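tool_log.txt
---
The assistant was asked to compare two proteins side by side. It first ran the structure predictor on the initial sequence, then on the second. Raw inputs and outputs are pasted verbatim so the downstream comparison step can read them without reformatting.
(1)
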Amino acid sequence: MKNWILISVAIFLFSALNQAQAQKIYKVEYESQADIKVYIVQYESQADLKVYKVDYESQATGNQGKWYFVQYESQSNKTVYFVQYESQADLKIYMVDYESQAGWRNTAKQHLFF
């Protein structure tokens, strides 16, 4: 019985950790619907996070800037709204061309995806 409880807790913690760090993103139409307000900067040096848009959901694991845009809000881990002005944003991102370039520049903002 004790082993069963430990296994159940371990499975729950593993799946919760995996889910909390996944970056399946849904773009909302209104600011009030968003978990995070995002601004796309022109230069990498201005960004908190360098983002690579992946082609498959399975590639969007971890909190490393690999985003998969889902079709429905219910499939997402986070909803984002893209703001017009930098001052409105919770997070500034720079879109990169290669997966290996993705990652956090400002680790103080990582909590936004937990």
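(2)
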Amino acid sequence: MQKITTYNPDQKRSPFAFFILSKGMNSGKPMEHPCPNCFTFNAADQTEKDHYYWICFGLWQSKSLHPLLTGSVIPFIRLHDLNQVIIQASEKAQASPANFLKTVEALKILDQHEKQYHRNLLLISEAKKTIFANYRTRPSFYR
């Protein structure tokens, strides 16, 4: 699979590309936007992008890539190892496409719920700050 390359901002990429984090404990995390430490997955069309994006998402969520991390200070995943794991996972997904679609739908729903909970937590945090803002004082040495 030559669809995955090391990210280079000057490199031409598919309009259906997504990015995969390559360093740190979140290695393997699929992303819509690039960062300096990532790989580029160049999909041929939206269907292929969705298929592989959700395979990467599942592998990342299940921490399936942790045994493949290398490096003592900053762990990273090798491109070849990532390719092999994605190929194997894709073969399993293609063996039972109905189950894979159910799994992806469940992941999408859970991901949406998680994002909503994060937004709610941010709103609650802001509300807490706002409630007590009227009682905030400045130390006397600032006057």
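---
observation on (2): Residues 96-135 form one domain. Helices lie at 46-61, 79-95, 97-132.
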